[in-house]
Amino acid sequence: MFGIDPSFFSSLLQVILIDLVLAGDNAVVIGLAAAGLAADLRKRAILIGILAATLLRICFALITTQLLSLGGGLLIAGGILLLWVCWKMYRELTVSDAEEEEATEALAGADLNADGSVAGKAPRKTLRQAVTQIIIADVSMSLDNVLAVAGAAQHHFEALIFGLALSVVLMGVAATFIARLLHRYRWIAWIGLIIILLVAVRMALEGLGAFVALPEIPFLYTPHVAAPVH
Q1: Is the CB of residue 171 less than 8 Å from the CB of residue 54?
Q2: Residue 229: its pLDDT value, please?
Q3: Whole-model pTM?
Q4: What would the DSSP string read from start to end of 6-69?
Q5: CA–CA separation, 53 vs 135, rounded Å?
């Protein structure tokens, strides 16, 4: 309709939901790492974590999108990596409410459960320990985000650019709000997990389709038709 490809909007919606879920997921990990610090150090660690995640997303976007465009085995590898992302997300979604509450309090810098302390139950740690933990997590989760967005965007370059820009903005200005939103409405994160799982399977099938003939699988795989040679 009006010359607009409906699959573009489908890809765009998937990209937005993936960004929301993974930005919140990344924020919770940063909050957990910073929860054991004193208030002044906690804010510094969270800021370092968000800035690092933002920069890493930009760097990984430049590399990963070029690699995935080569197709074949690299798409299969990307799909397998995203399956690992799904497993990690599942484990994080089943983390105890107490741990997630500590992380959310650390991010918000507020006593959300009215127990008289902000992330007071988290084990104590130094700023160096917290920042090291955050950077290691950021490397993994930023790559996860770029892979998932690239897979969901499929061949729509505009959706890809929008998704990567949105992930940077969300981590920079709305990470705390999103973490609290996902803590309150857990079902959003579960829908995001299902979408990333579908993206992982679709990416792996597309890569495998370059080597062997696969039948069409609705919503997951459509065989590529070679252009006629004149």
Answers
A1: yes
A2: 40
A3: 0.73
A4: HHHHHHHHHHHHHHHHHHHHHHHHHHHHHTTS-HHHHHHHHHHHHHHHHHHHHHHHHHHHHHHT
A5: 8
